[in-house]
Amino acid sequence: MFVDPHQDVWSRFTGGDGAPGWTLEAVGIDMRQLKENNAAIVHNTWGEGKSEKDLQAFPKMIWPSNYSKYATATMFTLFFGGKTYEFEYCENRYSKA
User: Fold this and answer.
1) CA 69/CA 50 separation, integer angstroms
2) What digits encode the pLDDT tens for the residues 57-89?
3) Which one of 7, 11, 24, 87 is CB 3.0 to 4.6 Å from 19, fit for a cystine?
4) Is residue 96's pLDDT more than 60?
5) Residue 44 host element (H or E)
């Protein structure tokens, strides 16, 4: 067995890759609002309806810049501490099988 300890920036919808979009929706995060709310900087949404000048103004960033943004920070908090911080929400949402 090989354990790869690196962490992606949760999902391609939050500037990385890995988890599917439904994981964000499952906790009430609207993926369509991530850019507008500055919850994630993602290349594929930055250029929508922008001029060439605006495209060149894409924020300077390094790969882990989105770690401290709302979407990724929330998802990692719930992933690693969900039973502590949001147990009741998760219990009520997913125990209704």
Assistant:
1) 22
2) 777 766 678 888 999 999 888 888 877 776 666
3) 11
4) no
5) helix 43-46
Please indicate, yes or no, if residue 5 is contained in any of the structural domains. no
Are the beta carbons of 46 and 15 closer than 8 angstroms? no
Q: What domain count does the chain have?
A: 1
- Domain assignment present for residue 6? The answer is no
Residue 30 has pLDDT above 60, yes or no: yes
The Cα–Cα gap between 35 and 42 comes to: 7
Q: Which residues contact 72 (CB under 8 A, 6 or more apart)?
A: 9, 10, 14, 15, 16, 40, 66
Residue 7 falls within a domain, yes or no?
no
Compute the residue count for the chain.
Answer: 97
